[in-house]
Design a protein that fits this description.
CATH topology of chain B: Rossmann fold
Structural class of chain B: alpha/beta
Order of helices and strands of chain B: EHEHEHEH
Radius of gyration of chain A: 19 Å
Largest sheet of chain B: 4 strands, parallel
Number of domains of chain B: 1
Strand content of chain B: 15-25%
Largest sheet of chain A: 6 strands, mixed
Number of domains of chain A: 2
Structural class of chain A: alpha/beta
Helix content of chain A: 25-40%
CATH architecture of chain B: 3-Layer(aba) Sandwich
Number of strands of chain B: 4
Order of helices and strands of chain A: HEEEEHEHHEHHHHHH
Oligomer: heterodimer
Strand order of the largest sheet of chain B: 2-1-3-4
Number of strands of chain A: 6
């Protein structure tokens, strides 16, 4: 796979089809690959592909709007790209997508805790274990054989749904009061592209500063709601979180509901409008009094 | 003697239907609880779901959003968009442990004074059942 990616990247850069290729290179710490931005054909040897390419590279695309960019994209990255195009943040012609069928990424932190050096199925991220689109949904060229989709599983969300409201609140407080409001989740997220985030606004001020549990609750719920119907379940937020908050549980709850209620999935089709940007007169309204 | 819990409820009513419905309820001298404090908005689609979050954050015991019936929106489609948003914010807040009785949504037209009074009663009952707000609220707002 690594060889194929390098070959494509070299060709694109030599022919001048793109100005830049975004991919992964070997990181400076074990079990971590990091994003790399290649502008010269002789640098393509830096590119690699392994089980630790956990960032969502689509996050960087908006910075290069108007330039031709090649991007190494796994299933979830490609969904993020589709969503960016659907939401008018990107032109399809500006990106050359090198699709990489993905067999899942491994949880580095968990492996280190267990003293493991070799990745195994047990250490896959939950959203990779249940990934419905491991093969990119949109690509110009595929760098490997297609991977068959895995079964969706929202049992983590369902466990919490079954609790009483007090238990859910207790869970929410316990997990989310660790938040230090570094906004790493926001920076890592390909869909968090607001020029001005609601949490930074002060006229009106939605959330006050500081780490009062109510502020942390507001921020985390607000973040999850702004991603409702847009989250592509790449898990980049959760991997970026230094406090290891279960951010994806909130996101997955929204993904699950959007699928159940409106039968919509984000970043799958270029022709569908975003779920909250459109409506159907026949929408369910069983929550109305 | 312990005082009965008197909930604070914020009602976002759309100008064209529910607010007019409330008006008619008043003119018709229908009895309904005084707890919902009305904020008139141009359309239920104008209600940013964060208003609901912020109301709870500021110590409001319950929120009630009401607009025109689907198909009757003064701006044609505002309440259709709102309906999708409210469904999701309601589910998300419930998921985080906010009691469902605090989150109320209804359609009341300008002629439905009776329905308005009924819904106001129902919402007040529901919020009374949920009790004083103790989740997501910032204590310093609770003093007044």
């Amino acid at each position: 796979m690594t060889e194929k990616i390098r070959e494509i990247a070299r060709r694109l850069l030599e022919n001048g089809e793109v100005e830049l290729v975004i991919g992964f290179e070997k990181g400076t710490i074990p079990l971590k690959s990091r994003p790399v931005f290649i502008e010269k054909p002789e640098e393509v040897e830096k590119l690699i592909w392994d089980g630790f390419c956990e960032n969502n590279l689509a996050t960087y695309l908006r910075r290069y709007r108007g330039r031709k960019v090649g991007i190494v994209a796994k299933g979830c990255d490609s969904r993020a790209i589709v969503n960016l195009i659907v939401e008018g943040q990107l032109n399809r012609e500006d990106v050359y997508i090198i699709g990489v069928p993905c067999t899942g990424m491994y949880d580095r932190r968990k492996m280190i805790r267990d003293g493991k050096e070799e990745p195994s199925e047990d250490y896959l991220f939950l959203n990779c274990k249940t990934c419905p689109y491991p093969t990119p949904v949109l690509y110009d060229e595929l760098a490997g054989e297609e991977v068959s989709p895995r079964d969706r599983d929202y049992s983590d969300v369902e466990t919490i749904e079954k609790m009483s409201s007090d238990e859910r609140w207790e869970w929410f407080q316990r997990e989310f009061s660790r938040c230090i409001r570094c906004y790493a989740c926001r920076e890592a997220c390909p869909m968090c592209f607001c020029e001005f985030c609601f949490v930074d606004e002060n006229r009106p001020e939605w959330v006050e500063g500081g780490i009062h549990p109510s502020d942390l609750g507001f921020w985390n719920l607000g973040r999850a709601f702004h991603l409702a119907g847009r989250c592509v379940e790449c898990g980049a937020c959760e991997r970026a979180c230094p406090m290891e908050l279960p951010l994806m549980v909130l996101n997955r709850k929204m993904v699950k509901d959007v699928k159940e209620i409106f039968d919509y999935e984000a970043g799958v089709s270029l022709d569908e409008k975003p779920v909250l940007g459109t409506f159907n007169p026949e929408d369910r309204e069983d929550f109305i009094l | 003697m312990e005082k009965e819990f008197d909930p604070k409820i914020v009602a976002f009513l759309c100008n064209w239907c529910s607010y007019a419905g409330a008006d008619l309820a008043g003119v018709s001298r229908l009895q309904y609880p005084p707890n919902p404090e009305v904020i008139r908005v141009p359309c239920s689609g104008r209600v940013n779901p964060f208003y609901i979050l912020r109301a709870i954050y500021e110590g409001i015991d319950g929120v009630w959003v009401s607009g025109c019936h689907p198909g009757d929106c003064h701006y044609q489609t505002g309440n259709y968009y709102a309906r999708r948003r409210f469904y999701l914010i309601k589910n998300l807040l419930e998921f985080a442990g906010i009691d469902r009785e605090r989150l109320n949504f209804s359609w009341v037209s300008a002629s439905e004074a009776g329905k308005f009074a009924e819904t106001a009663k129902k919402v007040t009952e529901r919020v009374k059942k949920a009790g004083p707000i103790d989740k997501l609220v910032k204590e310093r707002y609770l003093n007044d």
